[in-house]
Design brief:
The structure is a single chain. This protein has two domains: 183 residues, FAD/NAD(P)-binding domain, CATH 3.50.50; 100 residues, 3-Layer(bba) Sandwich (FAD/NAD(P)-binding domain). It is built from six helices and 16 strands. The strands form four sheets. Strands 1, 2, 3, 4, 5, 6 and 16 form a seven-stranded mixed β-sheet that branches. The two termini are 33 Å apart.
């Protein structure tokens, strides 16, 4: 059986970052990626998706992302181009498309079962991210709703909803950016659990990431409010603010075949709901190891599984490294 010292599952930004350091150390490793090409989750972002930090601060180790040719922060296409050139630059051993089905114990090794066959490894790093596991909350009547329900993971462009009545559900950066571009072309209500927190215009992803790292290291503190989930005022969101399109309403109580019912009993008919409600770790392949807890996470010491020390986790959010689900965090 083909055997490597380290097998990395996932060839997105975190897999490439790990590959950079392993190659520099001269390690024997292989990256398995389920995608058809470079870019990881960025291959599936909506057309206008953009970073909320400058290119130089959103780079992987060893090579800075080139500044975009246009004004503003890098777009999805800029990131895709960079990731493709990055993996070609360092000639990482990447095998794709290969879908990992399970990771199993095999005496002193871990066996990686894929749709292309089996491999063995002395250590496995799971870096599959969260994009393939979009989260939609359980709400009474959701299955009865006959309109369209689209998670931000599958949203593409505003023109698909021109002239419709919509709800955008979720108060993070994805919700704000999608609301900003839908409001001019559709009758849109923004539904958030509480009033969204808009950061000052001069605060971007750099500040948020530094705060997240500081909090992880120091524990509770009096650091000013602001986390990675707070809304950065990228240009489209600023334009929406100027138009008066960033007001939000509190959540509805249940769904019906034609729309939603609010807490006061009133009903609004809608054509579609865009769920910007986040993601959960994509860890189904680890089921045979028995390491995934009820909350969907893995107990780790640093980034190493406590229950299976040959397994490492990277890129799932703060529990697997500060800001590790972001480009900035992947580089750390």
């Amino acid at each position: 059986m083909e055997t490597h010292d380290i097998v990395i599952i996932g060839g997105g930004q975190m897999g490439l970052s790990l590959g950079y350091y392993l190659r520099r150390a001269g390690a024997d490793f292989l990256i398995l990626d389920a995608e058809d090409g470079a870019g990881g989750a960025w291959r599936h972002g909506w057309d206008s998706l953009r970073l909320f930090s400058p290119a130089g601060y959103s780079s992987l180790p060893g090579w800075l992302m080139p500044p975009p040719a246009h004004e503003g922060y890098p777009t999805r296409d800029d990131v895709l181009d960079y990731l493709g050139r990055y993996e070609a630059r360092y000639e990482f051993p990447i095998r794709r498309p290969v879908r990992v089905e399970t990771v199993e114990r095999a005496d002193e090794l871990l066996e990686v079962v894929t749709d292309k066959g089996r491999l063995a490894a002395r250590a496995v790093v799971s870096a599959t991210g969260t994009w393939s596991h979009p989260y939609i909350p359980e709400i009474e009547g959701r299955d009865a709703f006959k309109g369209a329900q689209v998670h931000s993971a599958h949203y593409v462009r505003p023109e698909d909803y021109s002239g419709q009545t919509l709800l955008v559900v979720g108060g993070g950066n994805s919700g704000a950016q999608i609301m900003a571009e839908l409001a001019p072309v559709a009758r849109t209500l923004w539904v958030t659990a509480h009033d969204p927190l808009f950061l000052p215009d001069d605060v971007d992803g750099r500040v948020l990431f530094e705060r997240a790292v500081a909090r992880m290291k120091a524990g509770p503190s009096d650091t000013p409010v602001g986390g990675i989930g707070d809304i950065v005022m990228v240009p489209p969101v600023k334009e929406a603010r100027a138009r008066g399109d960033l007001s939000s309403v509190r959540p509805f109580e249940r769904m019906t075949a034609k729309g939603v019912v609010w807490v006061d009993g009133s009903e609004t008919q809608v054509d579609a709901i865009i769920w910007c409600t986040g993601f959960r770790p994509a860890l189904d392949h680890l089921a045979p190891l028995g390491v995934v807890e009820e909350d969907g996470r893995v107990l780790v010491d640093g980034q190493r599984s406590i229950k299976e020390p040959r397994l490492w986790l990277a890129g799932y959010g703060d529990w697997s490294g500060p800001g590790s689900a972001t480009l900035m965090g992947a580089a750390r």
